[in-house]
Amino acid sequence: MIHVILIVFIITLFYLSIANRMLTYVKVLALQGVLLFFVAFLQLSEINTLNLIFILLETIVFKAIAVPLFLGYLLKRNNITREAEPFLPNFVSLIITTAIVVATILLSNSILDSHLDKMFFVVALSTLFTGLYFIASRRKIITHVMGYMVIENGVFVLSMAVGNEMPMMVNLGVMLDIFASVLILGIFLNKIGDVFKDVDVDQLTNLKDY
Amino acid sequence: MLSLVLTVIAALFFTGIVIRTKSLASGRKGPGIMQPIKDVIRLFKKGAVYSETSSFIFQIAPTIYLASIVMAMLVVPFGQTKGLLSFSCDFIFFAYVLALGKFFSIISAMDTGSSFEGMGASREALYSMFAEPAFFILMGSFALLTGYTSFQEIFAALHIGSYISYALAGLATFVLIMVAMIENSRMPIDDPKTHLELTMVHEVMILDNSGFDLGLILTGGYLKFAIYGTLIFNLFIGIIDYQYAIPLFFIVQFLMAVIVGLIESFSARFRMNHNAQFIVALTSVSLLIFFGALLMLGKFN
Q: Is B152 in a helix, a strand, or coil?
């Protein structure tokens, strides 16, 4: 069952790479939160109950509800246009994402360590790299936040693989990370939206010394 | 033999159900289930008109198109029962016999000398080229999973037991439905109802075919859908007795027709330059199936 959910998780990455609208990104992030909730529920059966409840609440409340709502609010508040505006065509994005997944599978297959759960490792690593790729290839600041969320999801999946031994630390770190990033960038975006009405990273290239 | 008969029976109703679903979804009553067959019978009673500029290729192409589809139908099994033909690697035969028919329909479109038809032909060639890797990676991973190379042996050995095999069968169903939509030039990549030559893909290729030839091409289209429906049914059947398998077959075909109708009703056609990325997405999904098969085999753990 966990494997099925992880495969669906990889498919959401493919979908994210060909999505056109900002709202689709938000919805896919919410879906990833729900998927992570189920993975956590099924995988972390050996840790104590309080801790499990904390992690489950974190995934379902935070990743699946609060952050997507907040991102949707930011989209509306700052009048950000609906298109994602990547630097590369979606077609190339899809091929690169596929290449990332294949490369991580080949990489993990060459690691001969019996302690490692390969499925989690592959999903986590490919999510990490795909998130990095989204950050590098999208034009708007808010898409960078979303790429960051994807990376956090990847870290969460990786922590899940070892979650039964050391759950608390990893998840606190992950949660704090997201919280800080969304809060800071949200405030940042709000200010920028009020003063400049435009959040296109591409315009930073026009800055120069005279 | 069984699969041949059942597929032909399913093909009689398939397109009618698709059309009826579409009209119900848009709030109309719609034509009867048998209307597409009645159209074909009407066309078969007519003669064909040939342009003076076209050569003999244009005249034989519809026949070869239908013949190739019937040939492909021969190798499709019904669960444990073999198709009329069954040999190792017959899924390659299946794909390339269909491709042969498509090749002839493409060169007959070029033969008319119409610029619109040339454009439609080039688009159709491009789409089927993109759909091919998805199909082969899918069938290849099933061959790897089961260790056999013919349709009948693969489907007979494909046991659905664990969760991951359900996931693989679900993904394979998705890929096969989408490949069927691409092969038949249906909605997400091509709109059969469009009226403008510039936006047609398959329809513009058969603009010059009339009467008997048009009937042959339409029959081929109906059969193709039913063939893919049979393939999807085979993914799930495993070892079931005939008295359950045959009703199940018609239920699966009916469901697939309804799904195709719903996809056509509720999705808009993609922009021309989005089609390529959509079709390559199928290849990505079939790569996942491939790695899932490796996972099940324990080659990768």
A: helix
Write out pLDDT tens, residues B138-151. Answer: 999 989 888 888 88
Q: How many domains, in total, are found in chain B? A: 1
Residues 6+ apart with CB under 8 A from A26: A68, A71, A72, A75, A146
Q: Are A63 and A33 in contact (CB under 8 A)?
A: yes
User: What's this model's pTM, rounded to 2 decimal places?
Assistant: 0.84
With a CB cutoff of 8 Å and minimum separation 6, the contacts of A210 are none
Mean pLDDT of chain B: 87
Reported as a single tens digit per residue, the pLDDT across B19-42 is: 999 999 999 988 989 999 999 999
Are A71 and A32 within 8 A, CB to CB? Answer: no
Give the tens place of pLDDT for each residue, B76-121.
988 778 888 888 888 899 999 999 999 999 999 999 888 888 888 9
Partnered with residue A140 across adjacent β-strands are: A200
SS3 per-residue string spanning A126-158: HHHHHHHHHHHHECEHHHHHHHHHHHHHHHHHH
| N residues, chain A | 210
Report CB contact under 8 Å: B284, A14: yes
Of A90, A94, A118, the CB nearest to B300: A118
Determine the distance in angstroms separating the CA of B300 from the nearest CA of chain A, rounded to an integer. Answer: 6
Nearest CA in chain B to A7: B288
Domain-wise residue ranges, chain A: 2-195
Question: Does position A199 have pLDDT exceeding 90, yes or no?
Answer: no
Domain encompassing residue B139: 2-297
